Amino acid sequence: MAEKNTYTAAQIQVLEGLEPVRKRPGMYIGSTDSRGLHECLREIVDNSVDESFAGVADTIWVTINKDGSATVRDNGRGIPVDKHKSGVSALELTMTKLHAGGKFGGGAYKISGGLHGVGASVVNALSTLFRVIVLRDNKAYFQEYKQGNPQKSVALATQKQLDEWTPKEWGIKTGAGQTGTITTFVPDKSVFGDISFDNTKSKNLLRDRAYLIAGLTFNFFDERDGDESHFYFEGGIKSLVAHTNRGKNSLSDVIYFGKEEENISCEVAIQYTDSFNENVKGFVNGINTIDGGTHVTGFRMALTRAISDYAKRLTNGNGNGKEEKNMLSGEDMKEGLTAVVYIKMPSEALQFESQTKAKLNNPEVQGVVSTVVKEGLDQYFEEHPGDARKIVEKIFLAARARMAARAAKEAVLRKGALEGGGLPGKLADCQSNRPEESELYIVEGDSAGGSAKQGRDRKFQAILPLGGKILNTERAQLDKIIKFEEIKDLIIALGAGIGESINYDKVRYHRIIIMTDADVDGEHIKTLLLTFFFRHMPEVINKGFLYIALPPLYRIQIGKAVHYAFDDAEKDKILKENGGAKATISRYKGLGEMNPSQLWETTMDPKVRTLKQVNVDVAEDADRMFTMLMGEEVPPRKKFIQTHAKTATLDI
């Protein structure tokens, strides 16, 4: 026993070079799923964007190659290739050492997104091939790496190599006087699995940066399917807000103001619509800080103060009392708000929460942004009283709805608590009280609910049957939602509450599984449930708790063997593999046609079932889709259905 518990110097490991990245990739790129893969692309793109910040690049090319690799090119200065005092070339040092690069001390880059100097080297470590071509000094240099290790020293590229490694239309020639950097990387499948680059995610990444940096052109090509897009915008963040709100009814033009204080440049664009949802984006030196930070906090504080001050002046002027003036909260300001907060500041001063730069931590930024936003909004409201009145009236409406929802919730609590009271009678709960191992199946209909209750594993699987289609919550106020019996039962079963008092730490199940029939009604119920979660419990999706069950469409019996097929293609494959043997094929019209054992064997047994996890890759795209499909405007929905009806597939 003594030997097993010994702890000596021999057990201390020292990870050299890029070994820490391969050992713990999530520490550097956030995760090894699709988000992490696209984080790698972002790191390389942002190195090229930094050349634009330095005023030496105006075009960036991004190509997804047929083999799944990505190539990023800029027409900047090209990474230095001369020998560094460390003994290797500057290129090799930058690509193989953490915290090495031209972004420290403000020498080569005053403004950049790549503060930590680890972006390219991290991507290098997580690639089976990483090739950098440098165009400078009227020559073409290159170096290749494998999992972060240089294969040879920096060398001159031949014209034959350039023709092989770069698209013909780029016209890359040796001795042609071209400048810039071309980076190609093949993501390591041992890290990322079979995940591939997604067109939509890649293009959104480029589009956002094109909005932020006037005069910078992005050219996107996907050689896998021939997709091609080009992005160039002069309108900056005003155009980004307008693009985000297209198809919605706005209460004013985009409100824009900007100012530079204490070496920090701050730009803000704001627009309110008649929707119920908020979309606030924060950017720092071209980086989308998806988790916000001090710049977004400063914005929210100033927005609340500016609107509250104007509302007080407005209510004093028309005789309304204290109730009107004091009813507003920061929550009310969010409804229908779209905003972009864009900060630029010296690279060496930036403080992020992590290498993925998802959250800004600089405390001085909060005060600067707060001052700029308060002054800008005060001036706008004075100069545009009509727009200001529309915005304030919208916010008063949100406040009244919030108070009505609170009253409705308190009424429900008195009758049979949403939280802390008895569970709904329809719920067949599981025995486990550990959320991380517990599952809740939301099942369509009492018949399917009965089969699911009998077929489940009671230890960790709970069943909540729905009596039919639930309320469309896209445009419904919270007080109406709480009164709807089926949704109220769901809220009580989940245990987290709803509205301003929601607490996701109290969610009772970490797998919430929507299980509906594979017909039009089932798809509609599924969409209504997705709308509810996206609009009113979004963190259930963000935390990865929400899933879609995939029950089979066919039961195929060949002799004594029984097979299940989830679609026509799988059915045909099973029949083909059995060489035309006589088969009895049954098509399930609904879950209620399955007996408990069949439902367990096909859809509920964790060993064999297929679940699709629901996630939101691009929040504004999802927001626009739910608004179109579930909102009040019929023409956009009709046009979308007519356009996509023949190509529709289940891809959640």
A few lines on this structure:
It contains 23 helices and 22 strands.
Q: Which features would summarize this protein structure in a list?
A:
single chain, Heat Shock Protein 90, Rossmann fold, 3 domains, nine-stranded mixed sheet, five-stranded mixed sheet, 22 strands
Instruction: Give me the CATH superfamily of the largest domain.
Output: Histidine kinase-like ATPase, C-terminal domain
Under the CATH scheme, which class of the largest domain?
Answer: Alpha Beta
Count of all domains: 3
Provide the helix percentage: 25-40%
Instruction: Tell me what portion of residues adopts beta-strand conformation.
Output: 15-25%
> What is the correct CATH architecture of the largest domain?
2-Layer Sandwich
User: What is the CA–CA distance across the termini?
Assistant: 52 Å
- Roughly what is the average pLDDT, rounded to an integer? 84
Structural class: alpha+beta
Task: Count every helix, treating DSSP H or I runs of 4 or more residues as helices.
Answer: 23
CATH topology of the largest domain: Heat Shock Protein 90
Question: The biggest beta sheet, please?
Answer: 9 strands, mixed
- Rg, Å, rounded: 28 Å
Notes on the structure:
With 652 residues, the protein is of the alpha+beta class. It folds into three domains: 19-231, Heat Shock Protein 90 (2-Layer Sandwich); 236-402, Ribosomal Protein S5, domain 2; 418-551 and 612-619, Rossmann fold (3-Layer(aba) Sandwich), CATH 3.40.50.670. It contains 23 helices and 22 strands. The longest helix has 32 residues, at 385-416. It is globular and about 75 Å long.
